[in-house]
Design goal:
Layout (H helix, E strand, L loop, with lengths): L8 H8 L30 H16 L7 E6 L9 E5 L4 E6 L27 E11 L2 E8 L14 E5 L4 H7 L10 E3 L3 H8 L4 E5 L3 H6 L5 H10 L2
Parallel strand pairs: 1-8, 6-7
Antiparallel strand pairs: 1-2, 2-3, 4-5, 4-8, 5-6
């Protein structure tokens, strides 16, 4: 069963008529399937993921991208039936929330393996995002996002990628189906905790969505900010 963070089928035809002709997504670029992840009850993300997320957050902070010292980490290399979203108070070094989160229906089944920035791809995007304003829409209380990485996630607004709740993101759903519901690319949260998490992270905090994509890890500005700054200083 799939939950879509987009217009229902009845309204889809009229909406698609407004999209540019180049909105159709290209075939997804296949990515390596991550190794099987052992069951874990760790409160914090894996050290290597946390380190990358902090690098990206500090880079964005130096550039004035964020207004709040709150960092949300999504580890898409974990299966969807495991809690793989963390909300961290960076100043206090505290995990405020650790929850399930959905990926796009064309990113994979129980495990996400493909990611896109393209319209109508129905895939999740990687990289660094900034949270924007909240609103109440078709999927209830929701949070808009701005993607900060050109070519990786900067079409988040255009694609209507938002944080919202869903009844299909729950331990009960995962126990029945072996996975949680999927979206059209939105990071959906458990319905009962979504409003609290949205209020915690709204208004200019950071979201870092991770997967071991070698091209993104190699080319992301936010993962190499310190190197770039050092090179610029050394060349002056």
């Amino acid at each position: 069963m799939k939950v879509r963070c987009a217009a229902p089928v009845g309204a889809l035809i009229s909406i698609l008529s407004l999209l540019p002709a180049c909105a159709t997504a290209p075939p997804p670029r296949p990515l390596p399937v991550p190794p099987t992840v052992a069951d874990t009850t760790d409160t914090w993300p894996r050290p290597e993921v946390l380190e990358l997320a902090m690098q990206a957050f500090q880079c964005g902070k130096r550039e004035g991208r964020f207004k709040r010292p709150v960092l949300t980490i999504i580890d898409y290399s974990l299966p969807s039936n495991k809690p793989r979203l963390w909300v961290i108070d960076v100043q206090r070094k505290q995990v405020l929330h650790h929850e399930l989160v959905a990926h796009g229906e064309r990113s994979g089944e129980a495990v996400a393996v493909a990611f896109s920035n393209e319209m109508n791809s129905h895939q999740s995007s990687l990289g660094l995002f900034r949270t924007d304003e909240v609103y109440t829409g078709r999927f209830g209380y929701s949070l808009r996002l701005s993607g900060l990485e050109p070519g990786i996630n900067d079409k988040a607004h255009e694609r209507a990628i938002v944080v919202h709740g869903s009844s299909d993101v729950s331990p009960a759903f995962a126990a029945t189906w072996g996975m949680i519901g999927r979206s059209w690319g939105c990071p959906m949260l458990p319905e009962e905790v979504a409003p609290k998490i949205i209020d915690t992270i709204a208004g200019g905090s950071a979201i870092f969505a991770y997967y071991p994509d070698s091209e993104w890890l190699r080319e992301s500005h936010y993962l190499h900010c310190g190197v770039q700054v050092a090179n610029a200083s050394g060349g002056s």
